[in-house]
Amino acid sequence: MTKKEQSPPLDGPTSRGTAAPNLVAPAAQPRAEAPNLAPEGGQTSRGTAAPNLAASAAQPRAEAPNLAPEGGQTSIAPATLREMFHTLPPEEFKELARRQEIAEWRRINRFCGCCGAEMRRHENPEERAMVCPSCGYVAYPKITPAVIVLVTKGDSILLQRNSHYHVPYWSLVAGFVDPGENFEEAVRREIREEASIEVRDIRYFGSQCWPFPSNMMVGFRAEYASGDLRPDGEEVMESGWFTRETLPPIPRPRSLARALIDAWLAQ
Ligand SMILES: [Zn+2]
What is the DSSP code (8-state) at residue 76? Predict the structure, then answer.
């Protein structure tokens, strides 16, 4: 994958997985030639008709520390925000994360990505958007999806140690969704890339807002299907199948990775 340097932290976030229905996706879908595809990175002006992102103006808010008004500047160092993820009451962290994501979005959209002009807030305060007065480009907050997967094989699960996370635990396969992919395709690709194996029975587990800076972790379970486990040696240094009795150190509570592992332990 192409975002190695900013892969989603493997101890993703916390929404307790609610065993969800089997969302197995059809693996191979017929492809129709889409018209007017620009070369990668080229121009494909997509309609700007953005979905109605009605601003969540009135929401219950918990008093979290040092909250700037929505859209104001709150710059909490990433490491501090990460620590807060583990220490603040979940509802407080949720509100803090929401504001932090919005503040970060405002910060990186001060100038138009199309023409460079200074962006302004949408004239309708209910509309959470930045607008370019020069070319009309409208920027809405962007959330970047990433998948995280618990792969089972008999009574074992796949865990791996990553090279670019300086953490003392093993975790699950995870990675960003690529342009053009759906979640299931991303799951298959990431597992193929990182572990050299194929999986089947991909099932949705749960998701978690991961505001570092604006990701959405989407958790799945999958069954081993074929192939010899082999870490890629680049992103993943070690990998293995672990039973309940042989688990190495695993991610801390509250993360989606941990919720996936805990649900498997409890079954
Ligand atoms: Zn512009």
Answer: -
pLDDT confidence bin for 38, thresholds 50/70/90: low
The answer to whether residue 13 scores a pLDDT higher than 50 is no
The length of the chain, given as a count of residues: 267
Bridge-based pairing of strands 215-226 and 144-153 is parallel
pTM, two decimal places: 0.74
Report how far ligand 1's centroid is from the alpha carbon of 119 (Å). Answer: 8
Burial grade of 68 (CB within 10 A; 0-12, 13-18, 19 or more): middle
Residue 157 alpha carbon to ligand 1 centre in Å:
49
DSSP string, 167-230: -SS-B-EEEEPPTT--HHHHHHHHHHHHH--EEEEEEEEEEEEETTTTEEEEEEEEEEEES---
Distance 179 CA to ligand 1 centre (A): 23
